[in-house]
Amino acid sequence: MFKIIERRMIVPNLHLLVVEAPEIVESIQPGQFVIIHAGEGSERIPLTAADWDREKGTLSIVFMEVGLSTGRLAGMNAGEELQTVVGPLGVPIECRNFGTVVCIGGCFGMGSIFPVVRALKECGNEIITMLEGRSKNLLYWEEKLSEYSDKLIKLTRDGSYGYQGHVKKGTEILRDLDIKPDRVIANGCTTLSYLAVREYEHYDVPVIVTLNTIMIDGTGMCGVCRCTVNGQMKFACVDGPSFDGRFVDWDELAARRKQYISEEAFLVHHSGCGGI
Amino acid sequence: MAEKKKLNFNRVDMPKQADFIRKRNFKEVALGYTAENAIEEASRCLDCKKPFCVEGCPVEINIPGFIRAIAAGDFPLAIKTLKEKNCLPAVCGRVCPQEEQCESKCILGKKGTPVAIGRLERFAADWEAKQGSIQAPEIKKKTGKKVAVIGSGPAGVTVAGDLTLLGHDVTMFEALHEPGGVLTYGIPEFRLPARVVSREIENLQKLGVKLICNFVVGKTKPLQKILDDYDVVFVGTGAGLPWFMNIPGENLNGVYSANEYLTRVNLMRGFEYPKTNTPVARHKKVAVVGGGNVAMDCARTALRLGAKEVAIVYRRSEKELPAREEEYENAVEEGVKFHFLTLPEKLTGNHEGWLEEIECSRMELGEPDASGRRRPVRIENSEFIMKMDSCIIAIGNSPNPIIPQTTPDLEVSKWGTIVADEETLKTSVDRVWAGGDIVTGAATVILAMGAGRKAARSMHEYLMAR
Fold first, then answer.
1. ipTM at complex level
2. pLDDT value at position A10?
3. Taking CB atoms and an 8 Å limit, are A222 and B277 in contact across chains?
4. How far is the alpha carbon of B118 from chain A, nearest alpha carbon, in Å?
5. One fold for both B146-240+398-465 and B244-395?
6. Is the pLDDT higher at B361 or at B91?
7. Lowest mean pLDDT: which of A112-121, B83-92, B233-242?
8. B19-131 — its CATH code?
9. Which is more confidently placed, B445 or A80?
10. Which residues from chain B sit within 8 angstroms of residue A27, using beta carbons?
11. Which of chain A's residues have a Cβ under 8 Å away from the Cβ of B176?
12. Chain A interface, mutation test: which of B217, B237, B252, B278, most A Cβ atoms within 10 Å?
């Protein structure tokens, strides 16, 4: 069992979960994920690590409450225990001195980009971090990220904070600052990742995205996380979850993410009380 | 030597749920012998002086011994005899391919049906479980040696059981949240109920086996570090990535690997969704590609999830079907259709990425290939379309890559299996043994258990020589 140290909503609908997992944090690297299974009857869900403390043996995760399982997690509190936190899984992100790296985080990705920002900074890169959200109240960890960023750019779609705009605005700002990235890394929902690829591919450098595929075991056994990268079948859990987004088949990825929409929508209409 | 008795060539039938009822529920299909059934069936055994059946058993169970006990109504002795050689009798009695092993050697089989060894094994194990008190076998004096077993599937469980009885201190590591490996995530409830597996594992824990779930050796901690804490290690990590056919459309929605489909239903209990939170899609028309036990399991699971039409698509003929005869018969009885000599060529879907059609070719059998089976050859211009909303691909899987990838100096074959000595199952790394599907590629539960037994013997010799 894995004890929850902290669980709180950090911005609307996004939760920070800190859990005791000393063996995992001993070997975890940036870009890796864990599978969490809250308890009997729960789903196994993959969540990327957002931070860790090796001395305390704690792992931090930022997750969005979207369905049954994340809803159950969001309802848990410090002192309670999770049946499963297993990992670290997946291939760590490549960390070396690339030069200038643009790190884009949106939604839960503002959390999961943090270990990447920290590690790449420690490798000597110049880090431009971009935080993207609908409105000011959805941005978090600004201070934490700025500690390892040479520049931190805030983008809000309603213009309530930082620059007004979306991913595209980020490229315009870079152009104005005369910055040419040597590598781009985007963490967030599938839309954000896709837009990052489309807006940054003209730089002709890798645009590394973390694919949010459906997973069950997370160790390369079930194959549900398969995706097409560069025309080849890849498994996000063991070959990824990070890939150069320029070569990902996005239409297929988007369709595969909707595989269980009808089952999940059933629950919205049937609350279990017998009525509709 | 048994007295001369009249030969009875007909085995006692095992009660089963009727096909039209069972095809819509997940309860166990075969209901098991009653005590009367078991005694009657056991009495058919000729108690041969030279029991060929034992030669057919990968774990060398004293088959005439336990059957003699059942015939005499001494069920405690029967289960004791079984457990001397087999730590999972309730599992093996259900899923071993006895017709190819022990039962294939039975003298009665020459003129009639062999003694139903598997059914009797299951009876004895279930009888014991019903008594509520499990008789623990005798454990040898503690040796103080520490053993790590990686993977709690059939191979790992056998090693853990054998070495614990020999007095060693065994810890079993499991990547998933439940132990049992393929017994838990792969074999469906209607063929091997989860409670049967958990009962057998609990028995091991009662003997003193320590179980650590949610631990991926190679990821959570490398194998080398495990070796720092244990005297010897057994790797039984089984299946890895599922194989696909490498044809267009395999990533369409509605297309599953057998592993995914079965794991959703078995391990995650998706058939109880939304009470349990892992959904499983309920398709109407399901094609299952492959001809093994796993393909039968998928087809029969699809029926139970409410499919109107389920078809097995297999590229060879009925004669080459690798599934157990019993499973094939059950599938036919339940209404699964079989398209033999048929090969899927292309999967096509609608604009939202959902499967709609499977384009297939007809095949004919040509010359025998390396496996000795006649090679299926495509018949030109024989293409036809099957309208299906789901396709489950059950053509096997590669070995689990995590330990080979993260353990330097571990010798691996070109297929990704760990290379282990045939007799001792020792690997190229000092103090590390391996067995089961990770060494042989996909095979059966009992072969993995047989490998576990051999490895345990060699590990014990090694530990005691030091």
1. 0.91
2. 96
3. no
4. 30
5. yes
6. B361
7. B83-92
8. 1.10.1060.10
9. A80
10. 219-222
11. 217
12. B278
Q: Please give the angle made by the CA atoms of A18, A19 and A22, to the nearest 5 degrees.
A: 125
The predicted structure's pLDDT at residue B466: 77
CATH superfamily of B244-395: FAD/NAD(P)-binding domain (3.50.50.60)
Per-residue DSSP letter, A274? S
Contacts of A43 (CB under 8 A, 6+ apart): A37, A68, A69, B268, B277, B278
Asked if A258 reaches chain B (Cβ–Cβ under 8 Å), the answer is: yes
What does the alpha-carbon distance between residue B215 and residue B231 come to, in Å, rounded to a whole number? Answer: 19
Q: In sequence order, what E strands does A68-225 have?
A: 81-82, 84-89, 100-106, 126-133, 151-156, 163-164, 183-187, 207-210
- Band (pLDDT 50/70/90 cuts) for residue A273 is low
> What mean pLDDT do residues B183-201 have?
92
Beta-carbon separation of B242 and A69 below 8 A: no
DSSP letter (8 states) at residue B60: -
Q: What is the reported pTM?
A: 0.91
Report how far Cα B35 is from the mean position of its chain's Cα atoms: 26
Domains of chain A by start residue, with CATH: 2-89 (2.40.30.10), 100-257 (3.40.50.80)
Residues of chain A contacting residue B253, judged by C-beta atoms under 8 Å apart: 255-256, 258-259
Tens of pLDDT, residues B344-366:
999 999 999 999 999 999 999 99
From chain A, the residues in CB contact with B274 under 8 A are: 68, 263, 266-267, 270, 272
- The percent of residues above 90 in pLDDT, for chain B, comes to 77
Chain A partners of B397 at a C-beta cutoff of 8 Å?
Answer: 221
Please tell me if residue A83 touches chain B, with a CB cutoff of 8 Å.
yes
Q: Looking at the predicted structure, is the pLDDT value of residue B419 above 80?
A: yes
User: CATH 3.50.50.60: does it fit domain B146-240+398-465?
Assistant: yes
Handedness of CA B44, B50, B53, B59 (dihedral sign): positive
